[in-house]
Structure formats: structure tokens, C-alpha cells
Amino acid sequence: MLKKIAGVVVAVAPGASFAAGPDMTGLTAAVDFGTVTTAVLAIAGMLAVVYVAVKGASIGLGMLRSK
Questions:
Q1: DSSP secondary-structure letter at 44?
Q2: Alpha-carbon distance 67 to 65, whole Å?
């Protein structure tokens, strides 16, 4: 029984290469993602600065309250 199942898997596996999809290099090569990446990183940097400022303020206020 196991040999039959293994034979079916081996027979199906070589034909599974059609799942890769069509070649879209013509469309994706024309798009420049450099500016989008820069914008996303800039927004992430600004959010990180805001998070650090809020966290620092909460730590500072926590130190003042404890005394």
C-alpha cells in the first residue's frame, strides 16, 4: 500500500511545476520601488521616534511619581 502511494506522489510531483504562474518580469521591471521603500522606512522611523518619546515620558513620569 505504501509503495503505491509513494508511486503516485512521485508521478504527480514533476507535473506540479505549472503552479509557478505566468512570467511578470515585463510589468515589474518597469516599476521603481525605491521611492516607496524610502517612504515606508521614513514613516516607520517617525513612528519609532514617537514611540521612544512616549516611552521615555512615561518612564520619567513614573520616576517622578515614585518619590
A1: H
A2: 6
The pTM assigned to this predicted structure is 0.49
Three cell numbers, residue 64: 517622578
For 15-38, b/e burial (b = at least 16 CB within 10 A) is: eeeeeeeeeeeeeeeeeeeeeeee
Query: Rounded to an integer, what is the distance from CA 38 to the centroid of its chain?
Result: 16
Element (H, E) at 6: helix 2-12
26-54 tens-digit pLDDT: 887 887 888 889 999 999 999 999 999 99
CA distance 37 to 23: 23
Residue 32 backbone class (left: φ over 0; alpha: ψ -120 to 50; beta: rest): beta
